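Could someone model S-adenosylmethionine with this protein?
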Amino acid sequence: MMDENTLPERDVWSDWLLHGRDGGDPHYARALRALVERYVERVLAGAALQPGETFADVGAGEGLLALRALELTGGDLQVWLTDLSAPLLRHAQQLAEQRGLAQRCRFLCATAERLTGIADESLDAITTRSVLAYVADKTAALREFHRVLRPGGRISIGEPIFQDEAVAAQAMRAVIGANAPEAVSPLLRLMHRWKASQFPDTDEAIRASAIASYSERDLVRFAQNAGFVDVHLELHIDALPSIVRTWEVFINTAPHPLAPPLSAIMAEKFTPSERELFERSMRPVIEDPRAVSTERMAYLTARKPRA
Ligand SMILES: C[S@@+](CC[C@H](N)C(=O)[O-])C[C@H]1O[C@@H](n2cnc3c(N)ncnc32)[C@H](O)[C@@H]1O
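Reply:
Sure, complex below.
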């Protein structure tokens, strides 16, 4: 697959998916896995994969969606697992071998924008889950999907919508900037320092950010601009009991792979007394059994025109 001697052992993506995302807490890890599996099932439902087809899961990560599709569809469904992370592809390949699925998989280390190695019009479908969020030029990636799909080929995409998080950070920045220092609560300053370490908080930074510059409506436009038709998008907003039940999980996890966890932000950017204030104020909120967390996921399906 790749030259083993030149591959990195780990990168930011493998650290997140294989080690960081659950904060080392087994209860949270199980709840998070169940949540991610629901997202994956939804993307798979949109792809409507059939025996005998070949599809690519772009940004396949540890192979969760690709291997699930092979197990569900059976027969001779074939998959390309593509990802820019060599450590994750290697991990996915090991999992495919353990589960007896490797014969039906091909592995490609490539960015979503340039699927070099996949021939024009060679695929029946493309799936991708939480990947375009990190791609700067989403239309370029969708054009590349269009290139490798046969006429009539399908895409099924599930992406988080993070824009509201950035807007919240921006609003805190505006309140702090518009008021005299003594009128701003110390807790608001800390909330802003926390959020602005994980999301952009100015117009300019939001526009330049791969993760925060787009809404669900932009995803529709990007797909149309790339040449797709029959574009259908569903925005799912789930305000559900939070799966983060303890302060320790809260501070040791992050909302996306490129964000530092709150524990690192507190260590670097808070004084000891600020840490104490923050924990005293926030711990009861986080550990309240009625705590709610809101997730925004956009699911898009479309197809390449037949003619
Ligand atoms: C949040 S993970 C999702 C992984 C997987 N799709 C899943 O559902 O579990 C994001 C994935 O996107 C990959 N990725 C990030 N930027 C990419 C890019 N420009 N091209 C291809 N893959 C990318 C990462 O390596 C990582 O595997």
